[in-house]
Every structure is written in structure tokens, then in C-alpha cells.
Structures
1.
Amino acid sequence: MTVQIRQKIEKASDTFTAGERKLAAAILSDYPYAGLSSIQDLAARSEVSAPSISRFMAKIGLTGYQEFQRSLIAELKQGDRSPVEVHERGRHIEGDYLSDFLTRASAQMAIAGDAITEEQFQRVCTLLASSKHNVYVIGGRISDTIAAHLSFHLRQARKGVFHLPSDPETWPEYLLQMKAGDIFFVVDFRRYQTSLASLAALARDERGARVMLMTDKWISPVARHASDVLPVPIESGTLWDTYSSALAVTEAIVTRIAEEHWEHTRDRIESWDTLRVTTKETTQ
């Protein structure tokens, strides 16, 4: 499996000088787009010299800035691969289909913990659990199933959670409700929806919301507007990417929040069930 530029930078980070750390921060803060500009533009943005950038590339195992940009472009292309391309290049199932498929899905879940640090996981849980702000959730064409799973369980643990519909005509209503500090949680996997990036930009810039993103290793364009990015592995090597690890991370988030605030969650679930049963009985 090809090692991403992001991973190369993180692996070599302990050896960086102060200037190289500044350069790494500039690249990762707007990854991968920051590296697609000219070397002069990147030097000006990171306040280092062009020769310093060339030395940085050698330190992370690249021959130079051209290879750096070619690698970033290749990563972007991977993020836009269709199921047809994935199927043609993937390794087909071998042996017992169900057993092999589940083995692949399990492998993706096993490495999800390496992609998201425990510190980041705890920070996201704390922010999503806080009653000081509302939480708005949305996903893409397929990934909205993950967003729906998150919002449904989170609503049972706290109030002020809203799942945005897929129809863009309804989005202004939710944007108008957002207040500074509210959380806008977006789930977006390849092939990315440009409308979600535009929506995230409006939520952050016009309403002051804090954008969180769950995405894959190729990183949705929504990341340009996000304060927190949760990259989860999705490659199964088959026709469809697998969302098993995304679902597992989502369940870990909502379970952690419910357990940490169990007394409040228990009371809310009991009230929820009472009203649900009452409503059911009165409509029969």
C-alpha cells in the first residue's frame, strides 16, 4: 500500500528543525491543497526558504518538490475513484467469500485506532457531549447512514441534536439556527460531495460553527473548513468501500458519551420510552 505524504511527514516529525515544523504545519493545515501551489508560494506561506523546502522533501524520503506534488495529485485521484475503478484494481475475494470479506473488514477496523489518537477521540466526545452548544449532523449520498446512526444515538443522550436532510433547499433553515460554537459534524467519503464542502464553509464562516469531519485517508475537501478531522480506513479491495470502521468509530463515540453521562442519558431514555409508548397507544 502506498504511503501517503501525510504519513511520511508524521513519521519524520521527530527529526524536524523549528523551520521544518513550521513547514509541516503549513502543509498539514490545508492538506493536500497547500502542497499544490508553487514552491515559492509555499515558502512564503510557511516563512521558510525554497532550499529549506527541498531539504525537507529529502528528509521525508522524496527526491524533490515535483515528486511531492505528483504524490499529492495521485492521492486526490484516489479520492475520486469510482466503484468501477476500485473493482478493476482491487484484489478479488479468495476462498470462502463471507469469511474473506469479514476478514478484510475486521482488518480495517483494527487499524482505525492508529488513524485516530485517543486524545483526539476524547476531545471529539467531550465536544459532542457538551450541552453548551447544539450539534448538527449530515452525510453524503451513502455516508449519511453513518450520520443518521450518530445523530439518533446522540439524541438519546442529549438534547439539541439535528440531522440535516439531504435536500439542499432545506439547509438554510438549519444554518439560520446555528450559533457560534455549535458543532457541525460532516461525514464524507470518496467520491466526495462538493455541496458538503460549501455547506461546511457557510457553517463556519457565516454562523461561527465548529466543523468536525469524518472521512477517509484521502481527506474530503470539507477538511479545509474543519477543526477536527477523523480519518477512518475504508478500503476493502472489492467493488464497494467498507464503512465498517466508520460505524465502529461512530458507535465508540456515542457509547462513550452515554456511559460518561449515564445518569442524564438514563433519565432521557426513560422519558423517551414513556412518550414513545404513550404515543403508540393513543394512535392505535
2.
Amino acid sequence: MSKYVIADIHGRIDALNEVILKSGFQKEKDLLIVLGDIVDFGMGVRECIDYVLSLPKKIVIMGNHDYWFLNWVLTGNILYDWRYQGGEATLKSYNNDIHCVPVEHIKLIREALFFYLDEKNRLFLHGGYNTTIPIENQDPYSLLWDRTIVQIAAYETIPIYSQVFIGHTRTQMLKSDVPVQLHNLTMCDTGAGRDGFLSIINVDTLEFWQSERQNY
């Protein structure tokens, strides 16, 4: 079994299909770790969630956009920030109707983890965290939204963990269109939600494969 990680799919079903094919990911054999933000921006949100659901071996991490989506399906409230930061595409994907959201889609997001630690002491999460506080004691808001971890990793190795994989902070913020390695931190979001690329990375080798640039 090989392990792959992917971040911030953002409803780009064509890009998802492309990187799965390019990487040689074997659906029935390999593990896919999804670092959150499956939803928003792209028009294939339903299809992306269906694909993740179809995987026998998967770890799904909660992203901030997924959290916004979950808020909608559980409460009916459409947050302004969500709607105008990609949520409009998700609403259209479900015909603007909560009742069109399959129960299994809600369950997948609702049961998503805030972080995952594997047997090789590699940490996977969406946003970031306060390195002075044990990961299990972190405020969920930080795990979804924090970006300061990137600033820390630019100067020093992140303590405790052998490797840390994050999404959320686009590599374009560091003027790169490919995954970025900062000491033992790997930035996996290469901008599929924002005119960039979707990337899938082999966790053990750090080899990566990318989609064509996403235009919307």
C-alpha cells in the first residue's frame, strides 16, 4: 500500500481525476489522505465528495470551507463569508437546497478529523497550530485557519513531528506553483481553488503530480 496526500480539491473534479490518473494511485489498494476543503469554488463538489466516499482507504481532514458547508447543512444558515468565498458553487452543486445533499455527504464531512497522526509520527492537518500547545489540546479554529506555522517552518524545524503536511495556505503566497518544503513542513495546497493547480503527493517519497492550471 502506498500513501498519498491531497489538499484543497475545491470541487475541481476534472483536476482530481487527472492527478489520480497521473500518480498511478490504486483505488482498491492505496490510502488517500485528504487535507480538507473538498468543497467550494469548482462546480464538481458533489462528484468530488462522491469520489472520496468511494475510496476503501481514506483519511478525511476537516477544512475551513468544509466547516462552512457543514454549518449550512446542519443549520440552514448561509454565511455571507462562505457564499462569496466559494460557497456559491457548492450551493449550485446541490441546487441551493439542503434536501438535495445526500446523507452520506453530510456524514463524511461531519466525521472528518481535525488532525491525523500516522505510525511514522507524521502529522496531517488543514491549517496550522500553536507549536507550544499539544496538538490534542488545540483550538479547532486554529487547526482550520492558522497560517503562522508556515512562518515558523521558514526558519526552523517544527518540533515533535517527523513531518507535517498542511493545506489551506497556497504555495503561490510563497511564489511557487508546486508543493513547498520548509524544513519538515510540506505545503500541499497549490491553488486549485484560485487559478492554480491541484497536486497529489506520495507521502513517503514526496514525489508529486499536478493537474493542468485551473481556470474558472
3.
Amino acid sequence: MQFSSTLLENAVNEFAKLPGIGKKTALRLVLHLLKMDAEKVVAFGETVIKMRQEIKFCQRCYNVSDADICSICSNSMRRPESICVVESIRDVIAIENTQQFNGTYHVLGGIISPLDGVGPDQLTIEALVNRVSKEKTEEVIFALNPTIQGDTTIYYIQKKLQSTGVRITTIARGIAFGGELEYADELTLGRSLQNRMPVESYVSHR
């Protein structure tokens, strides 16, 4: 692309760094911003900067939060004895949209994947084990993507939690193997949560 303005080119290059945004889409977004009122563009920029500088991660579950403890963990109407273990923040949002789960979450920050250089120490697994040991946890529900890496992570954490005596389950496989939770429709994901099974039964059939 040839640009008559270095400022325009720099802005396009920055937008193009976002996932799923190519140069043509980045150009369209930047040109749209140029058509907007200057005040609205400034407000947009300030919102993004404020989000990046001030957003926190919950000290209990590692979900995004405006405070040290997120709004889900601090909600007295939630069931703290039930913990849903997910890979990412996007999975929390997907499950919340089903309105079928009233417990709390634990965001691992990824899954065990040796080929990608991701080991257990790079995830929040130890924090989960400590949390289950210290809190009155009754059930740990695995809601990880149905992939080889997801299953490996379930198996590893299950072994780490065996001594706690906590009930360990996984969501039913209404989601196809190899699929991703965030792309599942809300009805399928909701039913998978409702029909969860003991993790031992799931592992033994794999």
C-alpha cells in the first residue's frame, strides 16, 4: 500500500497488528476514525489506554477485573464451593452467556502443550490446587476445549487434586472433539454444563 501520510500509514500498521485484521481492514477502520468527531476518537483512545493501564486480574480466579477480586468471586449469590476450570477469559464469557452456571471460575491462562513450549508451571494450576485445599470446594468442573492438549491438562490436574477428595467432573461432550468453547452455541454449551460427568468416566473412555 502506498500512503500519502506517514501518520495514516503508522495508524494502519498498528491496527494491522491486531488478530484477524489485515491491511485492508485496518485501512478501513482508520479511515472511519478520520470521519468521526475528534472528541469521539479521543474518547475511544482514552478508553483503550485506561483499560490497558488499570485492568486487573482477580487474585482468586485470574479472571479480568476492575478490582483485586472480580465481580463473580465477590458476588454473594454465586456458589463458591463449585469451581469451573477454563482455559481463557473468553471461555468465562461464553459460559456466563449460557446462564446455566452459578458457581465460580478458575482461569488457567492456557493448556499444557509441550509442542508449544507450555508446561504446567506456566499456568495457574498450583494456585487452583491451593485454592481447592484451602476453600470448602465441593466440585471442580473442567470446561476445557475437547482437544488432546485439553485432555492432557485435565488428566494432569486430576492427579494433582486426587488427595483433596473433591468431586471432579467435566462437561458433557455435546461439543465436538477438536472444537472450541467460545464458538459453541449457548444451548449446546449450557446442556454440556448441565450434563457434566465424572472425569474418571470421561478419561476411561478416551
4.
Amino acid sequence: MSPNKLRFYLDENMDPEIAEQLRRRGIDALSARDVGLLNVSDGVQLRYAAAHRRALCSKDSDFTNPANWDVEHDGIAYFPDPNVSIGYAVNALQELHRAETAESMENRLVYL
């Protein structure tokens, strides 16, 4: 995969099935469950995503405040609807993957 392709990390607030469906579509996506990061702080979630050059995907509104970003990161994809469906999330992230690169998402917050 090209190093500038957008890759995703879904925190524990996102259904891990979303990552599964993205992978089936050829998109590099991991969930907190995949990497054993359940029940950890928001800071740990963001630092993991940043360290692995992945855009963080979350429904956690704490990530919408730049004061909470303690590291440079590869983007945050925020879903404001706490009841977002798996299908909507998969389609929204697939479209984001088509439209953006890792570089274009650096330190950006995108509402989906």
C-alpha cells in the first residue's frame, strides 16, 4: 500500500465490524479490539493512532477539542451521532479514504 494512503484506527466507541467491512473493501483499518486497546484513556487511543500513522475514528466528542490533542496526528474522523449505523460509518469512511490522503488529513478534524 502506498505510504500516503489513509489508514484508519477505530477507537473502542466504534463497532469493530466497521473495521472488518472496510478491510473487506481493501481499506487498511484496525479497531481497538484488534490491537487490545479496550478500556484505555482517550490519550492512549490518540497516541496509538498517531504512532501507527492512522486516522482516529471515534464518536467521542472529547476528540473535537484540539486542547485534548497531545500529539501530532494523522487526522480524526468524528461521528457526532452516537447511534451511527455500521453501514453509514463504512460508507462515510470509504468516501473519506477516496477523497483524502494521509498528508491531507494531518492534524485535521473531519465531522462525518
